[in-house]
Amino acid sequence: MRRVHEYISGKIARGEKLHFTLVDPDKPFTREGLEKTARLMAEAGTDAFLIGGSIGVTPEEAGEVAGVLKETGLPVIVFPGNINCLTPRADAVLFMVLMNSNEPYYLMMAQVVAAPLVKKYGLEPLPTGYIVVYPDTAVSHMGRVQPIPVGKPEVVLAYALAGEMMGFKYIYLEAGSGSQQTVPLSFPAMVKKYTSLITIVGGGIRSPEQAREMVRSGADVLVTGTIVERDPELAVKIVKAVKSP
Ligand SMILES: CC(C)=CCC/C(C)=C/CC/C(C)=C/CC/C(C)=C/COP(=O)(O)OP(=O)(O)O
Ligand SMILES: O=P(O)(O)OC[C@@H](O)CO
Ligand SMILES: [Mg+2]
């Protein structure tokens, strides 16, 4: 059963660009507030919800958030900072390797610890190479990241090719949540040109214009988190820009 992968890849095959809404269960929320945001984003046309955070998420919070988001009928995908984000109430998990980490835990041990849990929970694994471009965010600190030189898209391409050769289906080009900059447009462009990976891009996207140029450059899936928390109406405009680039 690869229902979520088929849902995502089917839409891409039909020429659609996708938007994922990131919800961090560590951020304070009320059930009513979360329901309202979820409904707003679903009506705007977001394609799925990601749940996860770098620090502080309890499995109970992850489960509660997943339960509320599932009421929209959209897929709920765990975007794990670590195994604490896993919950059986989600549909799938970005089964990630942080490819440019210097830390063995994020390269192999997190996956080894997670795999039996993913199996028990019945989560669909989405095999994903995760690349964090910039230093100075929670994820780059926690993940002991070796940043990618911004003027060198061939470096990111080499990672993407390696990921594709190892059988990953997704590559997530991450600026870092709350980043001041988005990933360089040349990065999704290069990956799209030379691989058949599904390209997810996120971090620092704050305007419909940025969203539009990122999908025009080759991103298949755009992720926004911070703007959904700060300005949901602007997030709705971003979804519309992704859907009509
Ligand atoms: C396979 C499993 C279960 C785990 C893999 C674990 C790996 C490789 C994690 C990569 C390192 C990491 C810390 C990723 C975090 C990704 C994430 C959920 C980011 C969401 O944003 P935050 O970093 O929480 O942003 P804020 O600072 O805005 O809260
Ligand atoms: O919070 P923002 O900056 O939108 O980032 C989203 C996501 O890519 C973080 O992992
Ligand atoms: Mg967080």
UniProtKB/TrEMBL annotation:
One of its GO terms (molecular function) is magnesium ion binding. HAMAP family: GGGP_HepGP_synthase. Its EC number is 2.5.1.41. InterPro entries: GGGP/HepGP_synthase_I, GGGP/HepGP_synthase_sf, GGGP_HepGP_synthase, GGGP_synth. Sn-glycerol 1-phosphate binds at residues 172-178, 203-204, 225-226. Prenyltransferase that catalyzes the transfer of the geranylgeranyl moiety of geranylgeranyl diphosphate (GGPP) to the C3 hydroxyl of sn-glycerol-1-phosphate (G1P). This reaction is the first ether-bond-formation step in the biosynthesis of archaeal membrane lipids. It is an enzyme of class 2 (transferase). The keyword Lipid biosynthesis applies. Its cofactor is Mg(2+). This is Geranylgeranylglyceryl phosphate synthase. It catalyses: sn-glycerol 1-phosphate + (2E,6E,10E)-geranylgeranyl diphosphate = sn-3-O-(geranylgeranyl)glycerol 1-phosphate + diphosphate. It is found in: Cytoplasm. NCBIfam families: GGGP, GGGP-family, PRK04169.1-2. The keyword Transferase applies. Keywords: Cytoplasm, Lipid biosynthesis, Lipid metabolism, Magnesium, Metal-binding, Phospholipid biosynthesis, Phospholipid metabolism, Transferase. Pathway: Membrane lipid metabolism; glycerophospholipid metabolism. It comes from the Archaea. Belongs to the GGGP/HepGP synthase family. Group II subfamily. Its main location: cytoplasm. Mg(2+) binds at residues 24, 54.
